[in-house]
Amino acid sequence: MKIDRIDHIVLTVKDIEKTCEFYSRVLGMDVVTFGQNRRALAFGRQKFNLHEYGKEFEPKAKVPAPGAIDICLITESPIEEVVAHLKRVGVPIEEGPIKRTGATGRSCQSIFETRTAI
Length: 118
What we know:
2 helices, single chain, globular
């Protein structure tokens, strides 16, 4: 298994509107709405999905706090190979494989949830 790229990062923030204003004004990111009125900051083939502290969406960080992030990585390997590799190297999968809407708007089949502290 080899990681190809970052699809999206989930940022837990105190205030979604202030976050959108800052990233769009300072870094030129596009503010997008998706799913059930969720907000994200898009740039290139990536995006930052935003979770407001105390109003997070599932799945979320194990202990969400302002400044916490989740990272969604893309691999061209079949999901079965990814799962087998993670099991082989001792990384527990807490949820998944699951489907997610990726940064480019299409459903990503090679996304799973695992939370590991290094």
